Amino acid sequence: MPRHFAIVPAAGSGSRFGAEKPKQYLSLLGRPLIFHTLAALVACPDIDRVWVVLAPDDSEWGRYDWSELGAKLETVRSGGATRAESVANGLQAAAMVAAEDDWVLVHDAARPCLSADMLAALFHELADDPVGGILAVPVADTLKRADASQRVAATEPRDGLWQAQTPQMFRYGRLVEALEKCSAVTDEAGAIEALGLPPKLVRGDTTNLKVTYPADLALAAMILRGRK
Length: 228
Ligand SMILES: Nc1ccn([C@@H]2O[C@H](COP(=O)(O)OP(=O)(O)OP(=O)(O)O)[C@@H](O)[C@H]2O)c(=O)n1
Ligand SMILES: C[C@](O)(CO)[C@H](O)COP(=O)(O)O
Fold this sequence. Notes:
It is built from six helices and eleven strands. By secondary structure, the chain is of the alpha/beta class. It has a single domain (4-227), classed as Spore Coat Polysaccharide Biosynthesis Protein SpsA, Chain A (Alpha-Beta Complex), CATH 3.90.550. The strands form three sheets. A seven-stranded mixed sheet has the order 5-4-1-6-10-7-11, with helices on both faces. Helix 2 crosses helix 4 (172-181) and helix 4 crosses helix 5 (188-194). The protein is globular, with a radius of gyration of 17 Å. Residues 9-17, 24, 53, 79-83, 86, 108-110, 210, 212 line the site of cytidine-5'-triphosphate (CTP). It is an enzyme of class 2 (transferase).
């Protein structure tokens, strides 16, 4: 039986958020934001181990006590210049443990509202899938293309368009190969697509938001509070 592992890239600086420290360490309901992200993953009985990939010069991780998250958690200080590099380095750290056919779930540190139901949907829909896939939601708004002066140049059809989320779940060996061949991607699915393979879109939920701008942090707090 293949096992399931998680990689959490957490080496970003949060430049769009613009806080005094990387957004993954900002306080969310009294805990660092990333605590909620990691707690959702370690609580999943089907996930054997979780690697969190920190920036080599991260000075925040050591300020907190993570013992509550248990023994599944491993940290590596090998974050790279891009998200894809951080993920590739996390996969390398998992090499001693993961086999080619094991599943890897890559999940953004900055998505703290991942729920057990979302993970269950991903596991259920991908269990027998030959490629793997991602959580995603259909685009709900009308899409406008801007011109250079920020006026509408065109209205784009949104049929068939989905917004990619994480976790993104693929076989360990194939994901390593995909990222070695194609690292100019903003998500793991992009690298798998570059191999000519079609990842499955598993319908997720807009509450699995990525904290990118300050308003997202308040939304995440509301979402998590509403679940208690
Ligand atoms: N070199 C990088 C860049 C990003 N990430 C991680 O990838 C996830 C998604 O990235 P994003 O939301 O873009 O985070 P930041 O890069 O921190 O944000 P920004 O682009 O605004 O600087 C985050 O968990 C982030 O920590 C990473 O591990 N290594
Ligand atoms: C992987 C991702 O979460 C999918 O939506 C997203 O692309 C990561 O954020 P970034 O801003 O592209 O780094």
